[in-house]
């Protein structure tokens, strides 16, 4: 699967590359990595997580499982989670003073690099005027215009505070618009933790071995139909047996929550056609892929326009945000323009809007997506090469700044295929990489992310570390 995405046309890859612009941004973002003078071996000798362990033991008494989001808990890779102190550029530093090259990027938002100086300066300016108005502000118009002009399907947008909220809102809207109840989602796709979506919901739930969650009423999920990803025949059958009842098909257009899984070339166009034929809506959950695969998201990258789209992560530049948007005739059903109710105290707040605006502005610079493509290509091919050389079954792929690999020969087309990965091996690999100063997501079933701040040096260091660790497994 390596480089599978390269066969797809991307409007952005047709833009002229200005390597200097990429270098400029990468150098600025990576100020902290340039300062690192301690050798990797020296760092490893001093590697301890004592402070993290103490802090986590205290946290467990204060918060369920010691964390505020389950996948942070390291359950599937063993050991305790690391407690972090600061981020800058492509690096993240823990409370024991260990420094890591970071491929989690706060689970996606940090696409221009962590704690970008321009974003921080803009936030400081906005903050002088206050942190929340609970009333409209000009910055909402600015970010809305940017999102609408970037994302092909979005003619109107509603900002919320998280990806979960965005998916809850879009589901209610799809049901209100079509006056139908049933939805189709895909096994391994995650659309936040709202009740109707907690069915075969990928990473976090899978990592914990919970097929569904207690507390979700049966009634909330009886209208959620599921299908394996990339499985055209099951979708045809579901439409046949539920004629006139399906409000929408929702999916991650590239899966990041079951590991990294790409759609087969005909899959998205098939979904576009069958939803149209049945007067159902097609919803792309682009909370992860939006502004990541291309500036206009997966829908620009693949050239398939859904009816509705959810966004999050990148459009908040690291502050809490989400959004849903789509065709004007559908969006005008949302209150107060229409009767479908949805609201939020902090929605569209000036800080999140500011971080989003300045993150998107940086992404508009020339050469940005070329940089993401180049470093991620080097990274994933480097890891696959050293893995194979060391005799491991390993497969993986990438598109732009999103990647993943599995300890199985593949191909991986759906969550069942992904589960064939040797997760015990992944856990050992994971712990080894931590000691080498590389921070991946602590689960086999999560995609990884690069950023404009990742340098060739970061990538080479990561591949060298992977080679060393994989040889020892
Ligand atoms: C595709 C997708 N949808 C929805 C969500 C939920 O977003 P949040 O965690 O902001 O609620 C996520 C989170 O990772 C996601 O990856």
UniProtKB/TrEMBL annotation:
<dbReference type="InterPro" id="IPR015421">
    <property type="entry name" value="PyrdxlP-dep_Trfase_major"/>
</dbReference>
<comment type="similarity">
    <text>Belongs to the class-III pyridoxal-phosphate-dependent aminotransferase family. HemL subfamily.</text>
</comment>
<dbReference type="InterPro" id="IPR005814">
    <property type="entry name" value="Aminotrans_3"/>
</dbReference>
<keyword id="KW-0032">Aminotransferase</keyword>
<keyword id="KW-0808">Transferase</keyword>
<dbReference type="GO" id="GO:0015995">
    <property type="term" value="P:chlorophyll biosynthetic process"/>
</dbReference>
<dbReference type="Pfam" id="PF00202">
    <property type="entry name" value="Aminotran_3"/>
</dbReference>
<dbReference type="InterPro" id="IPR049704">
    <property type="entry name" value="Aminotrans_3_PPA_site"/>
</dbReference>
<dbReference type="GO" id="GO:0008483">
    <property type="term" value="F:transaminase activity"/>
</dbReference>
<keyword id="KW-0627">Porphyrin biosynthesis</keyword>
<comment type="subunit">
    <text>Homodimer.</text>
</comment>
<keyword id="KW-0413">Isomerase</keyword>
<dbReference type="GO" id="GO:0006782">
    <property type="term" value="P:protoporphyrinogen IX biosynthetic process"/>
</dbReference>
<dbReference type="GO" id="GO:0009507">
    <property type="term" value="C:chloroplast"/>
</dbReference>
<keyword id="KW-0663">Pyridoxal phosphate</keyword>
<dbReference type="InterPro" id="IPR015424">
    <property type="entry name" value="PyrdxlP-dep_Trfase"/>
</dbReference>
<dbReference type="GO" id="GO:0042286">
    <property type="term" value="F:glutamate-1-semialdehyde 2,1-aminomutase activity"/>
</dbReference>
<protein>
    <recommendedName>
        <fullName>glutamate-1-semialdehyde 2,1-aminomutase</fullName>
        <ecNumber>5.4.3.8</ecNumber>
    </recommendedName>
</protein>
<dbReference type="GO" id="GO:0030170">
    <property type="term" value="F:pyridoxal phosphate binding"/>
</dbReference>
<comment type="pathway">
    <text>Porphyrin-containing compound metabolism; chlorophyll biosynthesis.</text>
</comment>
<dbReference type="InterPro" id="IPR015422">
    <property type="entry name" value="PyrdxlP-dep_Trfase_small"/>
</dbReference>
<dbReference type="InterPro" id="IPR004639">
    <property type="entry name" value="4pyrrol_synth_GluAld_NH2Trfase"/>
</dbReference>
<comment type="pathway">
    <text>Porphyrin-containing compound metabolism; protoporphyrin-IX biosynthesis; 5-aminolevulinate from L-glutamyl-tRNA(Glu): step 2/2.</text>
</comment>
């Amino acid at each position: 699967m390596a480089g599978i995405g390269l066969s797809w046309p991307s409007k952005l890859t047709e833009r002229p590359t200005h390597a200097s612009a990429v270098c400029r941004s990468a150098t600025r973002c990576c100020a902290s990595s340039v300062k690192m003078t301690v050798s990797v071996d020296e760092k490893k000798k001093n590697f301890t997580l004592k402070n993290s362990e103490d802090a986590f033991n205290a946290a467990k008494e204060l918060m369920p499982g010691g964390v505020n989001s389950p996948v942070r808990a390291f359950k599937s890779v063993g050991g305790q989670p690391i407690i972090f102190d600061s981020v800058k550029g492509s690096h993240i530093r823990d409370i024991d003073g260990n420094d890591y090259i970071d491929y989690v990027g706060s689970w996606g938002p940090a696409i221009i690099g962590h704690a970008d100086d321009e974003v921080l300066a803009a936030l400081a300016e906005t903050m002088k005027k206050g942190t929340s108005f609970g009333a409209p502000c000009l910055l909402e118009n600015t970010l809305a215009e940017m999102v609408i002009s970037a994302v092909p399907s979005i003619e109107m947008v509603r900002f919320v505070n998280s990806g979960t909220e965005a998916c809850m809102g879009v589901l209610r809207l799809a049901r209100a618009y079509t006056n139908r109840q049933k939805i189709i989602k895909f096994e391994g796709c995650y659309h936040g933790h709202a009740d109707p979506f907690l069915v075969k919901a990928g990473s976090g739930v899978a990592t914990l071995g919970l097929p569904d969650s207690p507390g979700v009423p049966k009634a909330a999920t009886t209208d959620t139909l599921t299908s394996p990803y990339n499985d055209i025949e099951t979708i045809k059958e579901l439409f046949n047996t539920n004629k006139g009842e399906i409000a929408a098909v929702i999916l991650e257009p590239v899966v990041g929550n079951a590991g990294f899984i790409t759609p087969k070339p005909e899959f998205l166009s098939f979904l576009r056609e069958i939803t149209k034929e049945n007067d159902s809506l097609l919803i792309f959950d682009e909370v992860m892929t939006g502004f990541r695969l291309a500036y206009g998201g997966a829908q620009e990258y693949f050239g398939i326009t859904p009816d509705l789209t959810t966004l999050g992560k990148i459009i908040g530049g690291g502050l809490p945000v989400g959004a849903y948007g789509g065709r004007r005739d559908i969006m005008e059903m949302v209150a107060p323009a229409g009767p479908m109710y949805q609201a939020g105290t902090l929605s569209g707040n000036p800080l999140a809007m500011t971080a989003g605006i300045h993150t998107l502005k940086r992404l508009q610079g020339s050469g940005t997506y070329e940089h993401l493509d180049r470093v991620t290509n080097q990274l994933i091919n480097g890891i696959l090469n050293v893995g194979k050389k060391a005799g491991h079954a390993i497969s993986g792929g990438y598109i732009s700044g999103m990647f993943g690999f599995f300890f199985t020969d593949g191909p991986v087309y759906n969550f069942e295929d992904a589960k064939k990965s040797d997760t015990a091996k992944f856990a050992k690999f994971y712990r080894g990489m931590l000691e080498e100063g590389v921070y991946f997501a602590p689960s086999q079933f999560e995609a990884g992310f690069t950023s404009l701040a990742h340098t060739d040096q970061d990538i080479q260091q990561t591949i060298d570390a992977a080679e060393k660790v994989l040889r020892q497994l």
